[in-house]
Amino acid sequence: MSRILLVEDEEKLARFIELELRHEGYEVEKAFDGRIGLEMAESGQYDLMLLDIMLPGINGLEVLRRIRRASSLPVIMLTARDAVMDKVTGLDMGADDYITKPFSIEELLARIRVALRRKAAFREEKELLSCGDLTLDVSRHQVMRGGKEIELTSREFSLLQYFLENKTIVLTRDQLLEKVWGYGYMGETNVVDVYVRYLRGKMDEGFDKKLLHTVRGVGYVLREEA
Length: 226
Ligand code: CA
Description:
Elements: E1 3-7, H1 11-23, E2 27-31, H2 34-42, E3 48-52, H3 60-68, E4 75-79, H4 84-92, E5 97-100, H5 105-127, E6 128-131, E7 134-137, E8 142-145, E9 148-150, H6 154-165, E10 171-172, H7 173-181, H8 191-203, E11 212-215, E12 219-222
Parallel strand pairs: 1-2, 1-3, 3-4, 4-5
Antiparallel strand pairs: 6-7, 7-8, 8-9, 10-12, 11-12
Helix pairs in contact: 2-3, 6-7, 6-8
Bound molecules: calcium ion.
């Protein structure tokens, strides 16, 4: 069930939208204030946000600007009639869509469905990574090769995910250390080589085609050899 965050200070309108959305099977939470709406959106618990522009606390455009620093949460702006500038600014700032008040509930529902579908398609594309016959499913935390599941530790999984996200790009040990272990890593510097060895043992050994290659003097690369 999709969770919708509704940020709208006109309480009667908010209540009406909430009831209609619940009737359609959505979970709905409301905020009447921009600041609170922003905090709720940043919790990452929602699938979509309906955001009014004229709000107490922080206005809707500013809420949108701050959310877009770190999140791709789908946002549909609720704009007042004739506020053309608001619409343009909202879309420029990363709103997915807008709807002009007064609107029919059917139109709102249609726009919500479109935004949620787009999000789902995007997520599927992003969460299934592959190289040759190897696939990594981010959301299910699952790696498959040649029809068999490969068991990885969480560090090996992160390392493989980073290789897949940068397929065919040669990555240095320093890059891998920084991205997979983090800046603060203080342990052995050969940890990358050790983990690449573990990973190879699980995902390449026993297969005809090797995917993870050493680039002498530089680092490693994940790619399908011709
Ligand atoms: Ca308002």
